[in-house]
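Changelog note: in this version the structure field was regenerated for every chain. One regenerated record is shown below for reference.
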Amino acid sequence: MPTITDQFLHRPIFRIISDIAAERGVRAFVIGGYVRDCFLGRAGNDIDVVVEGSGIDFARAVGERTGQHVSYFKNFGTAMLHYRGDEVEFVGARKESYRRESRKPIVENGTLEDDQQRRDFTINAMAFSLQKEDFGALVDPFGGIRDLSAGIIRTPLDPDTTYSDDPLRMLRAVRFATKLSTADHTFTIVPESMASMRRMADRLKILSCERIAEELNKMLSTERPAMAFELMEEAGLLKYVLPELLALKGVETVDGRGHKDNFAHSLAVLTNVSTVSDNIWLRWAALLHDIGKPASKRYDPGQGWTFHGHEVIGARMVPKIFDRLRLPLDEMKYVQKLVRLHLRPIALVDEEVTDSAVRRLLFDAGDDIDDLMLLCNADITSKNEAKVARIRANFELVKRKLVEVEAKDAIRNFKNPINGEYVMQVYGIPPCSEIGQLKEMVKEAILDGVIGNNFEEADAFMRQRAPELGLHEV
């Protein structure tokens, strides 16, 4: 008899699995994210199949039937194969128990019902039957389809048990609420689950830094990443995940004068960046661009609140954050550079846009100048519309100047026309500090516009200034 879910199981792999299950006398089900995403109209190619029996043995049988190579992960009791563009993972149904000091479960063989109970959320516990007698039937003991329609993130069991057993699920709750939300359908974490997170937040301490970083990167890859950090703050998780960001929250007032909430501002900048770029590391830079403000905050009766040097302090903090979270070194350097330079284009807006200032900005930013400009544009968040309009108009002037100077002087990937070997040859000297000083003079002259960025003018300038350092041609 046809079911309403037949439309989701038209792929040949499902009938193959159904045939093998019947032959072997076991039950098999599609479960988890594929089922959830079918109802959301966004079904992908990652398919999880749970088998009441050995998932590895079942996968081997499917591999033999389809002629596909099977990859085995015996430590996890899983196996995976690719078939006609789909990635299908097989696991035996199981039940789990946990020790408080670890998120690694004690696993026993179980039934589908046991397996559904161990799932993180009701919307991820739904399954499609692959049995001949009820092929495509929805197995939904916890009301996942109802919660999906209502936009609710809820645990199948008591949330204290779910989150204490595996605290990573708290971050996953935040990620799914963020990932699944759209402009027309916002997902929320139920109040009892949020309350449980506040009670269980310190359980995040048992997680590895790598797992936390993986979840953060997935959150930052969503369409509305700022929502994830708002939820983590509300649930009391942020202080265990990114305390430097939480330190930005709040407004201090002296003599009736307060500063803006820099936590809210940082999330606004992240939102602005996420609308124009899916570069996750640019999004990291947006998130962290103001983390130096708490350490630099000062109140001056004449000026009000100041944050002088926060970009330098913030740039020093970035390596510590990336090291703690085991994030990649190369990307750390990129984020650190953008944090350090994020005020420079804005400063040009408030000053006369000289060729010299633009050359130095191009030199310091290099190939990352375009991303830096995206970040700086996103950083314009004042509620004063007239001020924003003025800054944006001047900002366009800076952008045009960047294009003009780059076209004329080729500074973005600056390479000094004068190298050390040439200096040694001209002046007959061995390696010494004067060579570096002379090259620095040439570089500064080019950036200041005193000479052009070419060998002829650089060579003439070098010969003119060398005597000041006691160097004479041989």
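Spot check on this record: The chain has a mean pLDDT of 90. The first helix runs from residue 12 to 24.
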